[in-house]
Amino acid sequence: MLGGHLDSWHGATGATDNAAGCAVMMEAVRILKTLGVKPRRTIRIALWSGEEQGLHGSRNYVKYHLADPVTMQLKPDHGKISAYYNLDNGGGKIRGIYLQGNEAVKAIFSKWLEPFKEMGAGIVTINNTGSTDHVPFDAVGIPGFQFIQDPLEYNTRTHHTNMDTYDHLVPADLQQAAMVVAAFVYNTAMRDEKLPRKELPTARETPLRGF
Ligand SMILES: [Zn+2]
């Protein structure tokens, strides 16, 4: 699966947060359809709603289709999904990917990024990143990842401000990102195995906070 969030803050049209992420993910799917490739696994895109209010779209998708994050009761699809990829850090180029603490995917992702090194995407970090829609997947043990992006003016100017408008997007950067994402979802769909998972989280006594 791949996705971004379609909702945005009301001060502007939300070009970098997160129309850019949605556009890149949709373009990645369009590229794969145009190429006519026949992936072995289903590739599903989700454009989430209510992200800014608390990841409501992705949290509820996960809860109803994959697993309850509190009781950790698993649904049938929990065993079928390989990975979820997210893009929600503005309109900048993809520079690499956060492993979200999943050491076992490091070698796989490093290999997948090799063709993109010349385009500036080569970083594979064990670090976590949060506050967006891959977190609910990760919370129930599904490999969920967010790409590392060039910050551009995201933190200094456009994020949740009245300047988050179309003129702050860089088409060439979005095109680069779409190529990287298309390769990642295609490679994921073509693997014999699902991506390696971290240990399954145990049931929690209190609802999860800080999503
Ligand atoms: Zn966002």
Describe the SSE topology.
Layout: E1 2-5, H1 15-35, E2 45-48, H2 56-65, E3 84-86, E4 94-98, H3 106-113, E5 123-125, H4 135-139, E6 144-149, H5 154-158, H6 171-190
Parallel strand pairs: 1-2, 1-3, 3-6, 4-5
Antiparallel strand pairs: 4-6
Helix pairs in contact: 1-6
This protein binds zinc ion.
Zinc ion binds near residues 5, 18, 51 and 88.
Short account of what is shown:
The protein is α/β, with parallel strands linked by helices. It has 6 helices and 6 strands.
Textual characterization of the structure:
With 211 residues, this protein is an alpha/beta fold. Helices cover 33% and strands 12% of the residues. The protein is built from 6 helices and 6 strands; from the N terminus they run E-H-E-H-E-E-H-E-H-E-H-H. It has a 6-stranded mixed sheet with strand order 2-1-3-6-4-5, sandwiched between helices. Helix 1 (15-35) links the parallel strand 1 and strand 2. Helix 1 (15-35) crosses helix 6. Residues 5, 17-18, 51, 88, 132 line the site of zinc ion.
**Rough shape?**
globular
Q: Based on helices, strands and strand pairing, what is the structural class?
A: alpha/beta
Mean pLDDT: 96
User: Main β-sheet, in a few words?
Assistant: 6 strands, mixed
Portion in beta strands:
5-15%
The unreliable regions are: none
Compute the number of strand runs.
6
In what order do the strands lie side by side in the largest sheet? Answer: 2-1-3-6-4-5
**What's the order of the H and E elements?**
EHEHEEHEHEHH
Separate helix tally: 6
- Computed CA radius of gyration, to the nearest angstrom: 16 Å
**Distance N to C terminus:** 19 Å
Name the bound molecules: zinc ion
Range of helix content = 25-40%
Oligomerization = single chain
